[in-house]
Write a structure and sequence with these properties.
Structural class: alpha+beta
Oligomer: single chain
Number of domains: 1
Radius of gyration: 19 Å
Helix content: 10-25%
Largest sheet: 7 strands, antiparallel
Shape: globular
Distance between the termini: 33 Å
Mean pLDDT: 76
Order of helices and strands: EEEHEEEHHEHH
C-alpha cells in the first residue's frame, strides 16, 4: 500500500529546480496572466532530475515544469496553472510590475529526497467513531507524516496529507471528469459548508483549461 514520494528539500547546490523567486522561462514564453492579474510564480522542476531521484512515472520524462498561482481564483479548480516545456531554460524573468509584493515568494533551490508515503485515515475512508476505544487515534493520525518530520511537505507523488474532511485527489479527479467533487461522499459538516459556499459563489467552479492542471500535469500535444 505504500507509495514512493519525492520530498522537495532545501539545498545550497546549484540547479534548476526551485520554489519561489523568478522563473527561468524559456525564450518566447510570456509570464502567464489570469483574468485580473499576472500569476504568482510557485515552483519550477527539472523533470529529468525528478525522474533520476525516483519520481513518479506519470510525470513527463523530460523537460521542465513551471507552476503559477492565481490568487483571485482561490477556491476554484484552476487555482494553479502548470506549464510543461522542453525548450531550454532562459534567464530569470523579472516580476511584472503589477504583481503584488505579497505574491512574490522568496527563492529556495531544492533537491529531491525519495521517501515512502502511506495513506491517511481520511484517504482510507476510516470512520474513527467505529474504531475500538483502545486504538491510539493520535498515533494513527500522525503515522503518515512521520517520515517527513517537521518539514513542510512540498512533495511530488505518493499519498496526500489530508488537511480537511475530504479526499482531495478524488474530488479533483471528479471535477476533471465534469462531475460533482463530493459525489458519493458522506456529507460531513465541512463538506456541507463548502457545498453551500460553492452554490452561492458568484464565480462558478469549472474544470481546468487544457493548459492547466491542479491534479496531474500532462505533456503538451
Amino acid at each position: 500500500m505504500m507509495r514512493p514520494t519525492l520530498l522537495m528539500t532545501p539545498t545550497t547546490q546549484p540547479g534548476f529546480s526551485k520554489m519561489g523567486g523568478q522563473p527561468e522561462l524559456p525564450k518566447g514564453q510570456a509570464w502567464p496572466s489570469g483574468d485580473e492579474l499576472p500569476l504568482s510564480f510557485l515552483t519550477q522542476i527539472d523533470l529529468a532530475e525528478a525522474r533520476a531521484a525516483g519520481g513518479p512515472d506519470w510525470l513527463p520524462a523530460d523537460g521542465r515544469l513551471y507552476a503559477f498561482y492565481d490568487d483571485p481564483r482561490r477556491g476554484l479548480t484552476d487555482l494553479v496553472r502548470v506549464i510543461h516545456s522542453r525548450e531550454p531554460a532562459g534567464e530569470a524573468a523579472p516580476h511584472p510590475a503589477d504583481l503584488s509584493p505579497k505574491l512574490r515568494f522568496t527563492e529556495r533551490r531544492v533537491a529531491f529526497l525519495r521517501l515512502r508515503s502511506i495513506p491517511s485515515l481520511d484517504w482510507l475512508g476510516v470512520d474513527v467513531r467505529e474504531l475500538d476505544d483502545g486504538v491510539a487515534l493520535d498515533e494513527l493520525a500522525d503515522l503518515p507524516d512521520e517520515p517527513f518530520g517537521d518539514e513542510l511537505q512540498h512533495r511530488i507523488g505518493g499519498y496526500p496529507s489530508e488537511i480537511q474532511e475530504e479526499q482531495m485527489a478524488l474530488s479533483c479527479e471528479r471535477i476533471r471528469r465534469g462531475r460533482d467533487p463530493y459525489e458519493d461522499e458522506e456529507p460531513t459538516p465541512a463538506i456541507v459548508s463548502r457545498m453551500r459556499e460553492r452554490a452561492t459563489s458568484p464565480r462558478p467552479w469549472r474544470s481546468p483549461r487544457p493548459t492547466e492542471s491542479v491534479c496531474k500535469p500532462s505533456a503538451p500535444p
